[in-house]
Amino acid sequence: MDVSIREEDLPARLYKTYELKETEESVSDSDTTVLAEIEGEIAGFACLKYHDWNKRAEVKGIYVRPAFKGRGIGASLITYSVEYAKTRGARGLWLETQNINYPAIRLYMKTGFQFCGFDTSLYDPSAVMPGEIALYFFREAGSD
Amino acid sequence: MEGQEENLGLDLVIYPNSPLAPMYARNENQIIELREISGPPGVEILSGFDAS
Fold it and tell me: Does residue A11 or residue A79 have the better pLDDT?
């Protein structure tokens, strides 16, 4: 099956709010949190988990404070995450994001991740936007 | 800061005497310090972020 990602403009700017409780649940089983600090202030963080059975490190979430966006925080957290994966002997990093999360997709592709799959049924349709699906990305730990 | 610097791209510097933490990324005049803590983030970290 040949699958590719196509960019398409939305008719209007899209805003989505994530509740704190959802964030807590999505990162609650991570084994490591990486903090990015600027002058002692937390500018962002990444939540990571190593899966021994398939030797993959999972990026469970990357968060950047709005005031610090566009300053390389996300890319720095990805770079650290790659080092985390190497240290644990992982063959690569894997993550899930949403097809509506354009900034995240751009960040992952810019930092060496490649689209590796999707799931049209992962999310409860009543809890997400119409057409919102899960996308998966992977990058090898050794490729810089 | 001491140690031989190894440039890994993304303008990021690792200090080999501490392979994971701390790590520093440089972006113009700002220094991003990266450090890891064990386990998931606590509420004190999560609540510092706007839910967006």
Answer: A79
In angstroms, rounded to a whole number, what is the distance separating the alpha carbons of residues A9 and A18?
Answer: 22
Structural element, H or E, at residue A74: helix A73-87
Any A CB within 8 A of B29 CB = no
- How far apart CA A58 and CA B52 sit, in angstroms, is 21
Cα separation values, A132 from A22, A26, A126, Å: 17, 17, 11
CB neighbourhood size of A93 (10 A): 26
Residue-range domain boundaries for chain A: 27-140
Report pLDDT for B8.
38
Instruction: Decide if pLDDT at B50 tops 80.
Output: no
- Verify whether the Cβ–Cβ distance A33 to B39 is below 8 Å: yes
Domain A27-140 has CATH 3.40.50.920: no
Each residue's pLDDT tens digit, A50-75: 999 999 999 999 999 888 888 889 99
Write down the ipTM of this complex: 0.80
Q: Which of A17, A77, A87 sits opposite B19 (nearest CB)?
A: A87
